[in-house]
Amino acid sequence: MIEEKKQIVDNFGRKHTYLRISLTDRCNLRCFYCMPEEGIELMEKENIMSLEEIIKLATKFRDLGVDTIRLTGGEPLVRKNFGYLVEELAKLGVTLKITTNGIMLDKYLDLFQKIGLKKINLSLDTLNKAKSVFITKRDYFDRIMKNLEKALEMDMQVKLNIVLIKGVNDNEINDFIELTRYKNLTVKFIEFMPFKGNKWDWSKGVSEKEILDIVSEKFGNIEELKNPKHSTSNNFKVKGHAGSFAIVSTITNPFCSECNRIRLTADGKMKNCLFANSETDLLTPLRNGEEMDPIIINAIKSKKYSRDGMDVKMDPEHYEKNRSMISIGG
Ligand code: SAM
Ligand code: SF4
């Protein structure tokens, strides 16, 4: 008899093949929509997965059918010995991706090229230096822009992540679209989402519809692109532009039906959803030498269909019990 391959499948039949690993809850920026004003209680060092533990868990997930791993954080590039880790993960034969604020990218682009990591999401909420300082509370704008140019010169597949907030950067939507005229990149607008301590209020958010209205008013001809399977964004292009744009409409038009994502926090907790309040500790059983497959396979069974049960609306009673985004890993 042929033994059936073990996979991570939830109660809705969704096969989970995409793992996002947070390498740290530390960051060199303080984006106000991500890091609560009062700061966060940082994880104790001994509770954070070691590099070897990350590699072991990533290997387990790979063996259970995960074919894509995104490294995130906090800021993944501030993790000590990041270079060693990414080289080891590249040996797993999965598609490796990263989400970064770009500050330290220059240090790693050659390595990324060598190991075949090409997909980089770079967070850049504004094209204005003074505003960047306001949003991030740090002054790294010039360095980030230089690293963005370098990544494009090296033919990396770059997506810019832009969290749109009314009165802050919504007046720059078309400036970002203008970037796609000659540059082969994607600008990805993200609807502002609620997490513990980020003072979310949807009146500050900008919806998918508003974005499309603003872009079509200026650029007219917008082409809808075919969304890849499991995509969490709607994808578009202004006709004739080299690059494209995307919208992550988690609030107004969530993409949960085909969700294939699992998250692993830096302290080794498996989260079935960005908005999940419940977590499964993988680090303790790993350290105790327990068999991990059944723990992972059972953990996914508690996944809710959409937004951890907030199907209709975002509920403060729910999301205030979640972690802050910086300690989840977006
Ligand atoms: N430090 C890296 C970076 O900024 O790209 C990786 C971690 S960051 C938490 C991952 C992504 O989450 C970023 O693109 C960030 O803009 C996004 N993000 C953070 N807080 C958010 C919020 N409240 N709503 C929507 N996106 C958010
Ligand atoms: Fe740091 Fe990224 Fe959060 Fe900004 S969005 S504070 S760069 S983790």
Automatic annotation (TrEMBL):
The keyword RNA-binding does not apply. It catalyses: GTP + AH2 + S-adenosyl-L-methionine = (8S)-3',8-cyclo-7,8-dihydroguanosine 5'-triphosphate + 5'-deoxyadenosine + L-methionine + A + H(+). It comes from the Bacteria. The keyword Acetylation does not apply. GO terms for molecular function: 4 iron, 4 sulfur cluster binding; cyclic pyranopterin monophosphate synthase activity; GTP 3',8'-cyclase activity; GTP binding; metal ion binding. Transmembrane segments: none annotated. GO terms for biological process: Mo-molybdopterin cofactor biosynthetic process. Coiled coil: none annotated. Its cofactor is [4Fe-4S] cluster. It is an enzyme of class 4 (lyase). Gene3D superfamilies: Aldolase class I. SMART domains: Elp3. Keywords: 4Fe-4S, GTP-binding, Iron, Iron-sulfur, Lyase, Metal-binding, Molybdenum cofactor biosynthesis, Nucleotide-binding, S-adenosyl-L-methionine. Residues 11-235 form the Radical SAM core domain. Its EC number is 4.1.99.22. InterPro entries: Aldolase_TIM, Elp3/MiaA/NifB-like_rSAM, MoaA, MoaA-like, MoaA_NifB_PqqE_Fe-S-bd_CS, MoaA_twitch, MoCo_biosynth_MoaA/MoaC, rSAM. SUPFAM superfamilies: Radical SAM enzymes. CDD domains: Radical_SAM (cd01335), Twitch_MoaA (cd21117). PANTHER family: MOLYBDENUM COFACTOR BIOSYNTHESIS PROTEIN 1 (PTHR22960:SF0), MOLYBDOPTERIN COFACTOR SYNTHESIS PROTEIN A (PTHR22960). This is GTP 3',8-cyclase. It comes from Christiangramia fulva. The lineage of its organism: Bacteria, Pseudomonadati, Bacteroidota, Flavobacteriia, Flavobacteriales. The gene is moaA.
